[in-house]
Write a structure and sequence with these properties.
This protein has 2 domains: about 35 residues; about 35 residues. It contains 5 helices and no strands. Helix 1 packs antiparallel against helix 2 and helix 4 runs antiparallel to helix 5. The protein is mainly alpha-helical. The model has no long low-confidence stretch (mean pLDDT about 90).
Length: about 80
Amino acid sequence: MALAKALLSQGAAPAKIFSEVRMPPFKQGAYLSMLNQIDSGAMAQRMQRIAAADLAIKTSKATPRMQVEMLVCELMG
């Protein structure tokens, strides 16, 4: 998703985006629409939060279930 957003912001044509990001043709229009609505900064923050939850699970900072529940609540809020 980050790759597709970067390509889109560089003015890449949809054919170029979907040569890098494989997706069925019937979903491509909706995907491009979604990419246009997503803020790059917010997406980067969410990716960092997902990575932090992954690390917390792997280092046993809390139960995996608790980490995932906290992550979902943060991402939905």
